[in-house]
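Weekly modeling sync, notes
Attendees: S.R. (lead), two postdocs, one rotation student

Agenda item 3: backlog of single-chain predictions. S.R. asked that every request posted to the team notebook include the full sequence so nobody has to chase files. The rotation student volunteered to paste the first one in as an example of the format we agreed on. Action items at the bottom.

Example entry:
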Amino acid sequence: MADLAGLMKERGLRFLLMSFTDLFGVQRAKLVPASAVEGMATAGAGFAGFAAWLDLSPADGDVMAVPDPASLMPLPWQPEVGWVATELLLNGEPMAQCPRRLLRRQQERAQALGFELRSGVEAEFFLLDPSGEAPADRADTQQKPCYDQLALMRHYPLVAPLLEAMEALGWGPYQADHEDANGQFEINWTFADALTTADRHAFFKVMVKSLAEEQGLRASFMPKPFAHRTGNGCHTHLSLWGVAGTAQAGRNLFHDPGGALGLSALAYHFLAGLLAHAPALCCLTNPSVNSYRRLAAPPTTSGSTWAPGGISYSGNNRTHMVRIPDDQRLELRLPDGAAHPYLLQAAVLAAGLDGIERQLSPGPRHDNDNFAEPLKSPGFGHLPSDLGEALEAFGQDAVLRSALGDAFCSAYERLRRRQWQEYRAEVTDWESHTGLDG
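Predicted structure, as returned to the notebook:
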């Protein structure tokens, strides 16, 4: 393992954010001076786990966050500070509910089969005024604002530093654009192995919010902050590659010129796993109450939600849950902005590997406009309509639960069920408005 303190000295870092992402996707960290890093590099930094969204009690001992030096990145906006991803120990043992460890376990499972998941994410976000009630750019009012050049360039003072920061970090950013909702943006960077993508995804959310705050703006990845505007997706691009030491080393195993749309049988088995586990996956790819405002929502002011309404796949057609954009990859359009960077990758990999291991078939491809002419049952399956249904599907998916581990699943489910019950106990403004004088 690399010498973390030595890496910090080499890069001129004075402080280190030792960070972990809890089960609800919240970034937790301690700021550690360089002089103290050597002592924590192996033992980790201590956290009271109950104070974060982990399934623990105040009676539990310290959770120790042990850093992975390979994830070290300087904060481009505060270059004397580094950020490092950590994994959690409790009582000296690896925590089964640690999201980053869960992803590494799925990677090990894939590697044993000769595969490496490489992935990329499209993490859409809104730039809002400090209240969070409206887009920061009051001139951003077009009915179809997607790719609006003027609106994009009005936020050049934020977008340009983000692109420069990603270039400096070696992520390979290649485009930024205004998305389909007023105030909505996306910045794309090059795909990588799933753990690297997850680390970058976690860091990206912190970076966007931090740089936006410096300019008096508020960045939000909330799935559906506005009822009549397109929500924030987190479209995920997926391919399996051969691992070192195998005959397929370094090859994209999804590509097959002789296969349908240029994809291999392996790709279609992986795809079938995504379809088979889609209802349960929603509990992880669409994990918030608000997530279900985006899925199967009515048309927005732009004319389309761009979110799937059912379980189906297609070619280069954005109205289905899985799109095959070319002969190299799959695009899963299910996840949203609340998706956990590590749990997203872990769950998708677990579902896809099950499709491969059981040689599942995805069935026929559908090329209809699934927004204008939705498929009828039994031509496609239904996605959960709310978090409660997603939790039920997650609880009943024995195969996925076995792959992810009962300790993690039980912990995650308990916390999400508590959140669902809290939401159901609330009396909303709409209820008061429509029923107070009824």
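Discussion: group reviewed the output briefly. The longest strand covers residues 78-90.
Action items: rotation student to repeat for the remaining queue; S.R. to check formatting next week.
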